[in-house]
Design brief:
alpha/beta; binds S-adenosyl-L-homocysteine
Length: 248
C-alpha cells in the first residue's frame, strides 16, 4: 500500500477506496487512532502562504480561526507571526499531537457552560484548540474572528451538514473578517469518492446570501495519479469570503 500523498496531501486509499464520501464523527476519530491522516501536510499550505495577504488585508496581530484544524502546521506558522490562533477539532489525539510535534506546552481546561467542549491552549493563550464537534462551537465560547483559514472542512462534513456549517461560520466572522476557503473540485458526474464534489455553485449558495464570494485561485492539480483513479478534473479553488454588511 503506498503511503505517498499527492499535492493536496491525500493518499489514493484515503481518496477512494475505503472511505465513504460522508464520514461519521466516529470514523474521523478512528482515522486519527489509526493515523490514517493523509490530509495532513508537514509544511505550511501553499495556498495559505500565497494568499495570506488577503486574509491580513494590511492588519497585524489578528485573531484567526482554523475550523476542523487537525494538527495543521499552519497554526504554528500564524502564531509565530504574532497572530492569535483558535482551532476547533474533534480528535483529542490530533490536538495533543499538534502541541507535542510543535514542541509547545499546553494546559487543558473545561469550558464553562459547554460540557461537550474542552480547550487545549498554550500558557500565554496564543494558540487555543477547542476539542469539540464544530456544531458545539460558537461565538459565545470563543468570540468572533478577523480572519479564517478553512482548508478541507466542507469536504470533511456530510453534504447535509454543509449549510449548517456555513451559517455557523458566518456568525463567527467579525466586522472586516477576511475568510479564505480552500476546496477541491472534481467534476465527474458519477464520482462519489473522497473528496466529495464541492462545486463553485455550492460554495456560492452556502455563503452568497450573506457574503461576497470571490474566486481568488483556481489551480489544476490533476496528475496522472488522479487520472488513474478515474478523476476527470481535480482543481483546487480558493475563495475570499467577506461579509456583505462590511461593504454597505
Ligand atoms: N484543516 C486540517 C484538517 C482537514 S481534515 C488540515 O488542513 O490539515 C478534517 C479534520 O476535521 C479532521 O482532523 C477531522 O478529525 C476533523 N473533523 C471532522 N468532522 C468534524 C466535526 N464535526 N467537528 C470538528 N472536527 C471535525
Amino acid at each position: 500500500m503506498s503511503s505517498k500523498t499527492d499535492a493536496a496531501g491525500k493518499s489514493k486509499d484515503e481518496f477512494l477506496a475505503n472511505k465513504p464520501a460522508d464520514m461519521t464523527l466516529d470514523q474521523w476519530i478512528t482515522s486519527w487512532e489509526n493515523q490514517q491522516i493523509g490530509f495532513h501536510l508537514t509544511s505550511v499550505h501553499e495556498m495559505l502562504e500565497k494568499h495570506l495577504h488577503l486574509m491580513l488585508n494590511g492588519r497585524e496581530k489578528i485573531r484567526v480561526f482554523i475550523p476542523l484544524c487537525g494538527k495543521a502546521v499552519d497554526m504554528k506558522w500564524l502564531a509565530d507571526m504574532g497572530h492569535t490562533v483558535v482551532g476547533a477539532e474533534l480528535s483529542e489525539l490530533g490536538i495533543k499531537q499538534f502541541f507535542t510535534e510543535q514542541n509547545l506546552t499546553y494546559v487543558q481546561e473545561s469550558v464553562p457552560g459547554a460540557p461537550n467542549v474542552e480547550v487545549f491552549k498554550t500558557p500565554e493563550g496564543r494558540i487555543s484548540l477547542f476539542r469539540c464537534d464544530i456544531f458545539d462551537f460558537s461565538m459565545i465560547i470563543a468570540g468572533q474572528f478577523d480572519g479564517v483559514w478553512d482548508r478541507g472542512s466542507l469536504q470533511a462534513l456530510s453534504t447535509a451538514d454543509r449549510q449548517r456549517y456555513s451559517k455557523l461560520m458566518i456568525t463567527l466572522m467579525a466586522k472586516g473578517c477576511q475568510y479564505l476557503l480552500d476546496t477541491l473540485v472534481c467534476t465527474n458526474k458519477d464520482y462519489n469518492g473522497m473528496p466529495p464534489k464541492i462545486s463553485e455553485a455550492e460554495t456560492r449558495s452556502l455563503y452568497g446570501h450573506a457574503c461576497n464570494v470571490q474566486l481568488v485561485d483556481s489551480t489544476d492539480k490533476l496528475s496522472g495519479k488522479q487520472e488513474s483513479w478515474g478523476l476527470e478534473s481535480f482543481i483546487e479553488e480558493v475563495h475570499l469570503i467577506t461579509l456583505k454588511s462590511d461593504s454597505s
